[in-house]
Amino acid sequence: MAPGVRLIIFGRQGAGKGTQCQRLATHYGVPHVSTGDMLRAAVKAGTEFGLKARDYMDAGKLLPDDIMVGLVAERLAQPDAVTGWLLDGFPRTVGQAEALNEVTSDAPAEKAVNLEVPESVVFERITKRRVCSGTCQRIYRVGDPSAESGVCEHCGGAVVQRGDDTEESVRKRLADYQAQTVPVVEWFAQQGRLVEVDGDQPADDVFAALVHAIDNR
Ligand code: AMP
């Protein structure tokens, strides 16, 4: 296992960030801290915080910076984050990035990595994605037999398009990323703390490029 790292991962929806983060977390032995996953878990658990978070998420809005900074600071203070962490989905605003610098002043993020996939490519990837709504939750693409038949070849579940994978919804999510997150990515670049990795290649090649970029950080 490679030694721990402290990294921020950026990438558009559909850039393959989730898959790559899981592999990187295992490779470097650090927790994958995804704010989207944390919020979805709170919503599922039905906590008071989760109910509040759901209102923002359903409206496609960002939660207030102070709430998000508190949530992340608490998570990074957990024992498993001592060796490092992989932050995904945070920071989403320049205010969050500045606050992260403050709360991690003892051991700040070493680098921010931008998994770059052109908008046209992710648009095609997401709108052609179909998912098994049965037990296996496998991901298919239009053209795959299970996607065409609507029946999962592994578990027999219904293969459907996710509600937020429609063209209209994807256009909005990509526009939001451009307006909200690209300025944060540029903020890291201006500070000389950003590494760009080409995410428009086979998943194994993306992983190798990420490890190379991270090990040479
Ligand atoms: P994600 O899965 O990262 O796209 O996050 C899903 C939703 O959770 C977002 O649309 C926001 O409503 C909320 N969220 C996640 N991360 C943040 C963040 N850093 N700041 C504010 N809201 C966030």
List keywords for this structure.
single chain, 217 residues, alpha/beta, 49% helix, globular, binds adenosine monophosphate
Model description:
- With 217 residues, the protein is an alpha/beta fold.
- The protein is built from nine helices and eight strands.
- It has helices at residues 17-28, 35-45, 48-58, 65-76, 94-103, 119-127, 145-149, 167-190, 203-215; strands at 6-11, 32-34, 85-88, 111-116, 129-132, 139-141, 159-160, 194-198.
- The strands form two sheets. It has a five-stranded parallel β-sheet with strand order 2-3-1-4-8, with helices on both faces. Strands 6-5-7 form a three-stranded antiparallel β-sheet.
- α2 (35-45) crosses α3 and α6 (119-127) packs antiparallel against α8.
- The model has no long low-confidence stretch (mean pLDDT 93).
- Adenosine monophosphate binds at residues 35-36, 39, 56-57, 61-63, 68, 89-90, 92, 96.
Question: How confident is the prediction overall: mean pLDDT?
Answer: 93
Q: What structural category arises from helix and sheet content? A: alpha/beta
What is the molecular shape? globular
Spatial order of strands in the largest sheet: 2-3-1-4-8
Radius of gyration: 18 Å
The major β-sheet equals:
5 strands, parallel
Q: What is the first-to-last residue Cα distance?
A: 17 Å
Count of discrete alpha- or pi-helical segments spanning 4 or more residues: 9
Proportion of residues in helical segments = 40-55%
Give the names of the bound compounds: adenosine monophosphate
Short description:
It is built from nine helices and eight strands. The chain is α/β, with parallel strands linked by helices and 217 residues long.
